Amino acid sequence: MSRSDKHILVVSAIRPRHMEELAAKYELHRWDQATDKDAFLANVADRIAALVSTAGVGVPTELIGKLPNLRVITSFGVGYDAIDIAACTARGIRVSNTPDVLNDDVADTAIMLLLATLRRLVVGDHWARSGQWSEKGAMPLTTTARGKKLGIVGLGRIGQAIAARAEPIGMEIGYFGRSKKPVDYHYEADLIGLANWADVLMISCPGGAATQGIINADVLKALGPRGFVINIARGSVIDEPALIAALRDGVIAGAGLDVFHNEPHMDRAFAEFENVVLYPHNASGTVETRDAMAQMVVDNLAQWFADGTLVSPVN
Ligand code: NAP
Questions:
Q1: Is 234 marked active-site?
Q2: Where is the D-isomer specific 2-hydroxyacid dehydrogenase catalytic domain positioned along the sequence (predicted)?
């Protein structure tokens, strides 16, 4: 198959250097840059065999329906809740993601948010910058992570990397998931049970229908007024109005959040809370990790065009 036979639809671009590499090897069709997307598609739809997108943008299910010869979707990111995997599987369309290469940066971010929230880093930063330190003296005392119970919702690749970092900090580890893992950590088969047990609830499960709003008002109540929530998974996993109410009313002590409903148009209510540390969905956002993720997209496409298999298949 020559370059002119390998047509790829770009729904969301990856890193510039990797886009150049793809452009040198394949015929790229920039749906992401087209103003009239339907007219653009009418000219190329039949030729598209592969599609590149990112986890944040995903792939509209109706777009998949308009590409009769689509065979493979390579997605930049580990979460694939914005791609209808069942619809792809039914059509025989293979999907790949970029697992593992982002575990360390995402787990580091989880611990960064955990410590920043418990130790009130942003409040302390403001205390120093604004001159309150010299005017009022020391900032109010915070609470330690050492000796606290960390309840991880979803002990997968990233959840385990978070646990490995939390242990040397001196935290006790527990988790909730659909199945018990071969680890020594405390297991709770019930989410309310984990919230009752934990001081800090760490969300690291996938988004999508199965986990929609599972961190609800009852879970937050069970976590209690000295409990914290850290979310590096997906905004959809938390019932956000319930979280905002819990933060406002002291139902929980605070939260560290990398992910939100309706990104990037985050609910502005969060900006009003001093007991919250915010990060704009940037847990994997280092040059090194984003390059490694982009390389996995390039490698998945190369392998698929070579022998029809994928480096990191989802379905
Ligand atoms: P993974 O290895 O597949 O782990 C997911 C874990 O969640 C598994 O332990 C799984 O365990 C559990 N789980 C699955 N469905 C569940 C459910 N319905 N209820 C409770 N637990 C469930 O995935 P990963 O690589 O660690 O990534 C996890 C998620 O992190 C991704 O899906 C993505 O959404 C998010 N993420 C966010 C960022 C960011 O920038 N903030 C970056 C990377 C990833 P069981 O099967 O035993 O339940």
A1: yes
A2: 8-315
